[in-house]
Amino acid sequence: MRIINWNCNGAFRKKFKQLEQFEADIIVIQECEDPERSNDQNYKKWAGNFIWIGDNKNKGLGIFCTESLKISNNNWETNDLKYFISANINDDFNIIGLWNHHANSPTFGYIGQFWKYLQINKSLMSKALIIGDFNSNKIWDKWDRWWNHSDVVRELEEIEIRSLYHEYFNEEQGEEKSPTFYLQKNILKPYHIDYVFADKKTFNKIKSIKIGHETEWLQWSDHMPILIEL
């Protein structure tokens, strides 16, 4: 199974064909348009089998699957946290797509949004993949905060969910060698803020993980796509 995550930086209707080369089964996209309300017929046809959420029809979060897969919305509670899709694939495993936002929260922005989501739904996260733009990294941990990036990683590990990138490349959190994001598309401002976490028992064999290179992908987005093969 091949899975892609990509924050497309908007206008996905003009960019989706760039992902066809990967022949992915599941594609998680941040900042994409709602296919149902799009006027682009090619995009609507391509989207086909999907779940999308967002406050703006032009910029939301979507999970897209091949027609051979069954995707159903779990409708897990979000308490208006932004943005999370919990879905089930083939009555076999769960996938949580996310796009962490500041969400106008003075305290629980970005990783705080996921920390809250985790507290609500932790007991449901069996056979789970968690994938998306976390807008977070250990380097931004604050000493007096209990919902830091490191706290989230620890809580996930307690329920046997780990980061596939860090396991595959044997790198530590906060010491990633491969950026997933370039601030303002500036190659001198690289960060690793997009992740794939997965249940250890269900997803115990990682065939490959690849992160797009800036020379190819910066023309399309400030984020690099992540391709996981399980």
Please, could you describe this protein's structure?
- The protein is an alpha+beta fold.
- It has helices at about 40-45, 110-120, 150-160, 165-170, 215, and strands spanning about 1-5, 25-30, 50-55, 60-65, 70-75, 85-90, 95-100, 130-135, 160-165, 180, 190, 195-200, 210, 225-230.
- The strands form 3 sheets. It has a 6-stranded mixed β-sheet with strand order 3-4-2-1-14-13. Strands 5-6-7-8-12-9 form a 6-stranded mixed β-sheet.
> What's the β-strand tally?
14
State the helix count: 5
Content-based structural category? alpha+beta
Overall geometric form: globular
Mean pLDDT over the residues: 97
Element pattern in H and E: EEHEEEEEHEHEHEEEEHE
Q: Enumerate the spans where pLDDT stays under 50 for 5 or more consecutive residues.
A: none
Largest sheet: 6 strands, mixed
> How would you write the strand order of the largest sheet?
3-4-2-1-14-13
> What is the terminal separation in angstroms?
5 Å
Outline:
By secondary structure, this protein is α+β, with helices and mostly antiparallel strands.
Task: Give the topology, please.
Elements: E1 2-7, E2 26-32, H1 41-47, E3 49-53, E4 60-65, E5 71-73, E6 84-89, E7 93-99, H2 111-121, E8 128-133, H3 149-158, E9 161-163, H4 164-169, E10 181-182, E11 190-191, E12 194-199, E13 208-211, H5 214-217, E14 226-229
Parallel strand pairs: 1-2, 7-8
Antiparallel strand pairs: 1-14, 2-4, 3-4, 5-6, 6-7, 8-12, 9-12, 10-11, 13-14
